């Protein structure tokens, strides 16, 4: 009898978890349907897909058990979760998943990375984690630390000090800002080098 009760508990928590993931897939479909996908490359599309998915996940975070909650530093777990949601989206909005795949097939292999040189002016946690660079001209530029790159540890472990000269590379993406209900051109940090 005890084993039967444990079995029922396991089945009910698995089904419950699946229901939450169905909700997240549906809300991610709704969010991505508002995107101007025609003007986005594969990277921008994947980035915005991820942001839509995480926005929905955050709405439903309390519906997950502690061992099911995402560890944002665990890339394998994040990737697996994204794949599960994308699979569920195939039945709800298959066109969006196909666009995600097509975006990568059609993307040029030429890098669109831009560079800035200046002094490191600290970091600031806002909607995203910002890295602030003051250029020689006096202009202050905020870049978002969003994806992993080899030198990210320099920021993560606070190895770069204020007023230290750095060179950063980045690309621009239009991210959906839910506060203003509009797309905002944002600089996404791809590398930082100490000078």
**DSSP summary: helix tally:** 5
Measure the end-to-end span.
Answer: 68 Å
As a whole number of angstroms, the C-alpha radius of gyration is 20 Å
Q: Give a short account of the largest sheet.
A: 5 strands, antiparallel
State the shape: globular
Describe the structure.
The structure is a single chain. The protein has 2 domains: 2-106, no CATH class; 114-194, Beta Barrel (OB fold (Dihydrolipoamide Acetyltransferase, E2P)). Helix 1 packs across helix 3 and helix 2 (42-59) runs antiparallel to helix 4 (94-106). The chain has helices at residues 2-32, 42-59, 75-92, 94-106, 153-156; strands at residues 114-125, 129-135, 140-145, 165-177, 182-194. Helices cover 43% and strands 26% of the residues. The radius of gyration is 20 Å and the shape is globular. It has 195 residues and is of the alpha+beta class. The model is unreliable at 1-17 and 104-111 (pLDDT under 50). A hairpin with a 3-residue loop joins strand 1 (114-125) and strand 2. The relative contact order is 0.13. The protein has a 5-stranded antiparallel beta sheet. It contains 5 helices and 5 strands, in the order ααααβββαββ.
Short description:
By secondary structure, the chain is an alpha+beta fold. The chain is 43% helix and 26% strand. It has helices spanning 2-32, 42-59, 75-92, 94-106, 153-156, and strands at residues 114-125, 129-135, 140-145, 165-177, 182-194.
Question: Any descriptors?
Answer:
about 200 residues, alpha+beta, OB fold (Dihydrolipoamide Acetyltransferase, E2P), 2 domains, 5 strands, about 45% helix
